[in-house]
Amino acid sequence: MLDGLARAVRRFLGILPLAIVASAALAQEPARPAVALHYGAKPPIDELQAFDLVVLDPDHVADAAALPRRHTAWYAYVSVVEMQPSRAAFRELPPAWLRGRNADWGSALVDQTAAGWSEFFVTRVIAPLWSRGFRGFFLDTLDAYHRFALTPQERAAQEDALVALVNTLHERFPGIALVANRGFEILPRLKGKVSMVAAESLYLRYEAGARRYSEVPAADRDWLLAQLRRVQAEHAIPVLVIDYAPPAQRAAAREAAARIRADGFIAWVTNGAIDMLGVGDVEVEPRRVALVTDRPPGADFQQATAVRYLSLPLHYLGYTIDVFDIAERRLPPTLADGRYAAVLTWFSQPIEGLNPQFAGWLAAQLDAGVRLVMMHNPGIELDSALGRRLGFTTTRPPGGELKVRVREPMVGFEAAPPLLARDVLPLRSAAATPLLQFTAADGATLDAIGHTPWGGFALAPYTVSPGALELGPRWIVDPIAFLHRALGSPAHPVPDVSTEGGRRLLVTHIDGDGFPSRAEMPGTPFAGEALLREILVRYPIPHTMSVIQGEIAANGMYPSLAPALEDIARRIFALPHVEIASHSFSHPFYWRAVSAAARRDPAAVRYEKLLNLRIPGYSFDLAAEIAGSAAYIDRTLAPAGKKTRVFLWTGDTVPTAEAVQAADRAGLLNMNGGETLATRTEPTMTSMSGLGLRRGDTLQVFAPNQNENVYTGNWTGPFYGYQRAIETFELTGAPRRLKPINIYYHTYSASKQASLAALHRVYGWALAQPVVPVYGSDYIRKVRDFHALAIARDWRAEATTWRVRGEGEVRTLRLGGAQPIDLARSRQVGGVVDGPDGRFVHLADAAAELRLATAAAPVHVREASGWLRQFSRRADGIAFSLHAYTQPGFTLAAAAGCRVRVDGRDLAATGGDAAHPRYELARVETSTTESVFRVDVACR
Asked: Are 186 and 47 in the same domain?
């Protein structure tokens, strides 16, 4: 923000000759952390964790101690010589301390020599931020005193005061870390007190007063470059250069950042407001898509057509989704903040009148360089100015049948495109590379699907066929292939939640419904008892098991049965491989309806249509349903050392945002919802849901698969129908691995011989596959980490290098094709294996770096029955910890002549071949059922 001071400061500093500075030997190579600055009101914390050091405006951070610190140091922006009137401390400043204004930024100038100012700054500015968790501070406007200190004596007094202030900060706050923005005059007196020096506008600048971007004049650039060289030579600390470019000029920002790096400095190029993800030494890959759509009045987004059809393709491609209702008119002012890959529109019908500002908003996003993908109904007038800008021209409606002129292989994915002229929009796209193009009877050329420089379009009815009684909806265009190219064919690795250690995940979870039902077997035991005996004891793999409090507790529907039912639940939860979940108190069937009814009259919920179980004396209460039911389980049913971890949504599985937030507050992970039900008779991706849905500031995680209720005609028969879940597992496993295997059913499946037989068949099939069984909570955390994960390109590396930062729950990346991997120079990458749709890369830590380059493959883990931790690579081999819930084992690659030791003992291969030896380990029982082994591989 001090670019306007450059010439003024130059008058008072000697210029060190560039040749001398350039030849000065550095005492040591300074550390080069990746740095970002973001002063926006809603900083994108998830994406910013890709950086090592991030500067935030503390007014926009409620609790700095809660920021994720696994990878990132968070610094507070603090202006020293200037203060904005919007700051809380400004109101307490005595007028006598002020020495004018900076009109460009609307800030007041503070006399550093004023009696009491230093103590004020320490106690009223720094101390509150320190108490909120900040330990690092970016000291801005250190040179601003030149605006009012006009004589050498005045300037010297200001400089003495600034040096004293910095020394006081170190005395009062031991361990404080400081970044100085310029302050070249006082730096020689602050050796060891400042860990980094920053300077703005080396190549590109932002002139706040004129609100314009421009190139830095050569004289100013040379002067600043000399100062920065002197800092490097005399202080051996990192130097950060902050340049400015408009959001739409991403290429120019990359070029400026490259020049800054070539000069030996840390780069950060951002917009004038410093409220976007700019380009630095690393650049965050945008993984968000803004989905603008419509939905039936009163419907939830989960039921919106666009969300149902597009979530899975987008999630598969590695994108997260922010959904916006066109009718609500709450579109964000701009998507050009570095987080969004594109805006994607899908409208089920014409939207004229729903949002008159939409076309203008869309044009503004295009102006800012955001990609656009239009699907189904275009949502704009194609013969409007925006339509013409996009390259569309309209023709008269064609008649008769259409003839296919261009049809790319991705068209006709699940159904052939209809050829009736009345079905097609009469338009031509001059900008498109056509994927589906027709010739009409009158000779006109019509475009239905195409990729364009701005993105792409696939218009009705060539997205999803409308379906018929005998055939449901089908994708006409392959949505994954189409979106991949329309979104710019990104090459970044995709975080994958279907796979662990190269093997497919197996998630098993059980809704508690029907626990008190009588099983159709000798002695007519309760279904819960039959489940325990016939399934849970027989298959000692991770299970997430839930109960409904209102079904089994003394204050529920069957108080006389409570002692027996609770005893069964205790025995189930005591099993070491069973994770405890709640399935609510009263099993709401319609979460939104029951919540609305309770707001009108809580007592009336008992008498309206069946919205939840009819429990005597109970009126719906959100706290009782979620936190209360978990507390009941922990207090009454859980063994010592175990607590409820998960809440499984009931009924329609469409909770309100308030309900999901209530689960978060109770410390419960949540799951259920989604509509994945693909079978050989309905082999369509339109029946596959995504990973989950953002609800406000939190996330509802969908179950990967549907339960037996929908395979059995809503439990009317055939009761062996759940065996068809195997068809779903096969269809979602190849040719693309879209989902993990999810054995999901209700307790009442243990009440009938046919349904039990189906369960045994499903378990048998699943356990015969190469799988990694995990708990429901493990999968939920993976999905949450998928949404929060940061993937960034590290521009400092010679080869393409991707930096991955997250919580360490997502431990698999998927690469398209057979991209080469330099395993030796990657970091925390334990191995790789080719899968059905790409290469699966095994990560061993929450922070990893993947280098893509052709290199000889050293020894690595090809696949494992668990996950890797504490991975290290040395010249003669590798070492890692293997974690597994079930039979542990692993296969190595490039392991010829290698000696394998596990926990200090030699281990011989038990299978595989010379190229890929397989090792099996003896399982060790622990309280969590997780086995941990330390593996060392030494190669000659």
From this structure: yes
For the domain that residue 247 is a member of, what is the CATH number? 3.20.20.70
Return d(Cα 605, Cα 615) in angstroms, integer: 11
Residue 103 has pLDDT above 80, yes or no: yes
What pLDDT shows up at residue 928? 65
Give the end of a domain, one of 490, 515, 535: 490
Q: What is the reported pTM?
A: 0.94
Q: What is the maximal distance between C-alpha atoms in the chain?
A: 101
Cα 204 from Cα 224, distance rounded (Å): 13
Q: How far is CA 42 from the centre of its chain?
A: 16
Same structural domain for residues 205 and 350?
A: no
Contact 45, 250 (CB under 8 A): no
Q: Which tokens in the block code for residue 397?
A: 């409606």
Cβ atoms of residues 321 and 291 within 8 Å:
yes
Residue 915: pLDDT band with limits 50, 70, 90: confident
User: By three-state DSSP, how is residue 376 classified?
Assistant: strand
Give the CATH number for residue 335. 3.40.50
Calculate the average pLDDT of the chain: 92
Same domain, 179 and 94: yes
Q: If DSSP codes are grouped into helix, strand and coil, which group holds residue 853?
A: coil
CATH number at residue 524: 3.20.110.20
**Residue 91 per-residue DSSP state:** G
What count of other Cβ atoms lies within 10 Å of the Cβ of residue 97? 18
Could you tell me if residue 346 is inside a domain?
Answer: yes
Residue 863 lies in a domain: no
Q: Residue 539: which domain range?
A: 495-782
Query: Does residue 868 fall inside a structural domain?
Result: no
How many separate domains does the chain show? 3
Residue 314 phi, psi (nearest 5): -70, -45
Q: How many CB atoms lie within 10 A of CB 469?
A: 5
pLDDT (0 to 100) of residue 467: 63
Calculate ∠ Cα 245-247-253, nearest 5°: 45
What CA–CA distance (Å, rounded) separates 192 from 166?
11
With 70 as the cut, is the pLDDT of residue 6 above it? no
- As a whole number of angstroms, the distance between CA 460 and CA 447 comes to 11
Residue 902 lies in a domain: no
Would you state the structure tokens that stand for residue 15, as one six-digit string?
């210029």
The letter for the amino acid at 450 is G
Pair (724, 650) in one structural domain: yes
- Residue 112: partners with Cβ closer than 8 Å, 6 or more residues away: 80, 81, 118, 145, 157, 158, 161, 162, 165
State the DSSP code for 396: P
552 shares its domain with 479: no
CB 288 within 8 A of CB 371: no
- Give the pLDDT confidence of 413-422 residue by residue, as tens digits: 999 998 877 7
**344: helix, strand or coil:** strand
- Looking up tokens 């991955």 gives 804
Of 721, 755, 782, the domain-final residue: 782
Quick one: 421 and 437 in the same domain? Answer: yes
Residues 6 or more apart in contact with residue 872 via CB below 8 angstroms: 878, 879, 880
Q: Is residue 483 a contact partner of residue 375, using CB atoms and an 8 Å limit?
A: no
Q: H/E element holding 258?
A: helix 250-262
Q: Which amino acid is at 88?
A: A
What is the tens place of the pLDDT at every residue in 66-89?
999 889 999 999 999 999 999 989
pLDDT digits (tens, 9 = 90+) for 131-163: 999 999 999 999 999 999 999 999 999 999 999
Q: Is 374 helix (H, G, I), strand (E, B) or coil?
A: strand
Q: Are residues 694 and 546 in the same domain?
A: yes
Q: Does residue 279 share a domain with residue 294?
A: no
| Continuous segment of H or E residues that includes residue 178 | strand 177-181
Q: Is 324 helix (H, G, I), strand (E, B) or coil?
A: strand
Which class for 135: exposed (0-12), middle (13-18), buried (19 or more C-beta within 10 A)?
middle
Backbone phi and psi for residue 133, each to the nearest 5 degrees, phi listed first: 115, -5
How far apart, in Å, do the first and last CA atoms of the chain sit?
58
